[in-house]
């Protein structure tokens, strides 16, 4: 807030003690303004406030005014002048106050920029923009049209195919607040973090329209004389959410033989935990953390083990270190799939038929729960009163009730697979209303036909997450939800063997993230959006089983 004590100008009462004036209304002039800004210079606008007295007299340029901005990232007030930010665009309401009476003006700041990759000749952009275009031979590849992104994604790659292999490409990002164009010689743009950060910060809570132009450039020496074979595709929409995607993602990397820790806005993932000596003989996964991040449960095996064993470990307060509690020897208990109750009191580690309940802080065995058709792959609800399990030789998704004290009781069957199908890896949404799970033809293990589905805890239709799945036979598997966001979408991470844009997969899985709009799910519609690849991964790593913690 700024208090401005400028001298009065124009018509109105004489100068002197202005505090006693009987003001009935004020106005800001102008009341609406649009400015452009860029890294090289900011637009600005002078404002005045006119005050109307009870006798109808108008005091122009009233001096005793306080100003307040609703969005200070869009710019700042310098005396009576609004100066736009040079780092991003945005909208802000300018509120003027005089003796408790207020008026507002709306300021829109449009961020503009043109970025040239090294080797792109100057002068081609004007000819390229003005030329008529067709779409022959151009294909947009990544990110998919309609992708929804968190505001804090640090970077994003943009890829396309061009049969004609043009000399020059222009990729534009346009919205009501952005006019940014990137020029490159290659059919890919690896986003500059500064430019991408400007686009996401400016358009948080809005959509950005992408268009791609391609052209061959005719040169006379170092001078551009013409452009030929101009083509254009688009628009393609990207939606940037209002808030960050929070928490940390812990995923099993078979390449690194352990658990890797990262976050959506991180650029350097951490090789976080591997049992034993961390050599190729060890296999580690099926991991979960308590809601406060203090305990880790996992399953592991090595060449000396006939089956997987259940592991329990304490986690340092800053998650920098992990200390295993159970011995890594043949006496360790059997277990593949793990879940904690939300209070961190009980830990379930399941084999293929039995749920073994332990003390989550010490690993002490408490009880077992099984049935004639077996229980496995448990996931505890956020409220702590229910557990989703797979049963019936991987053909049933059932719900158990937690009666307290680690005692479990079967209550209902939620989904039954069709003939020759498997159901597996159920997971509760952070609001406890939905369960995401896998459905595949044939066995559940390492199945290329694996696809993601959603069902309400209260029943209803089984909904395929078709946009997230992208297509058949991509091994879309083992989804895990992000923390409850301050937004109207939920985030869901999963492993997939799909191509990354124009870079074909090498048979290895990587972690992808989709946005889920549960309002659409309530209508029985596909609530997912096309997924984006978690950018922190190396393309030559094999990554699976993401666990998304709030810590």
Account of the protein in words:
The protein is mainly β. The chain folds into 3 domains: 2-109, Sandwich (Immunoglobulin-like); 117-240, Immunoglobulin-like (Sandwich); 250-549, Neuraminidase, CATH 2.120.10.30. The protein contains 4 helices and 44 strands. Strands 1, 3, 4, 8, 11, 12, 14, 16, 17, 19 and 20 form an 11-stranded mixed beta sheet that branches. A hairpin with a 4-residue loop joins strand 6 and strand 7. The protein is globular.
Question: What is this structure, in a nutshell?
Answer:
The protein has 551 residues and is mainly β. It is built from four helices and 44 strands.
Secondary structural class: mainly beta
Could you give the distance between the termini?
35 Å
Number of separate domains: 3
Number of helices: 4
CATH topology of the largest domain: Neuraminidase
Which blocks of ≥5 consecutive residues have pLDDT under 50?
1-11
Proportion of residues in β-strands: over 45%
CATH class of the largest domain: Mainly Beta
List keywords for this structure.
mainly beta; Immunoglobulin-like; 551 residues; eleven-stranded mixed beta sheet; Neuraminidase; single chain; four-stranded antiparallel beta sheet
Topology record:
Blueprint: E1 2-5, E2 23-29, E3 32-38, E4 41-42, E5 44-46, E6 48-53, E7 58-59, E8 64-69, E9 75-78, E10 81-84, E11 90-98, E12 101-116, H1 124-130, E13 138-142, E14 147-149, E15 157-162, E16 168-174, E17 178-184, E18 188-190, H2 193-203, E19 206-220, E20 223-240, E21 248-253, E22 258-262, E23 270-273, E24 283-289, E25 295-301, E26 309-315, E27 322-324, E28 337-340, E29 346-350, E30 355-359, E31 365-369, E32 375-380, E33 386-391, E34 396-404, E35 407-416, E36 421-428, E37 434-441, E38 451-456, E39 463-464, H3 466-469, E40 477-481, E41 490-496, E42 510-516, H4 518-522, E43 532-533, E44 543-549
Parallel strand pairs: 3-12, 12-17, 14-20
Antiparallel strand pairs: 1-8, 2-6, 3-4, 5-10, 6-7, 8-11, 9-10, 11-12, 13-15, 15-18, 16-17, 16-19, 19-20, 21-22, 21-44, 22-23, 24-25, 25-26, 26-27, 28-29, 29-30, 30-31, 32-33, 33-34, 34-35, 36-37, 37-38, 38-39, 40-41, 41-42, 42-43
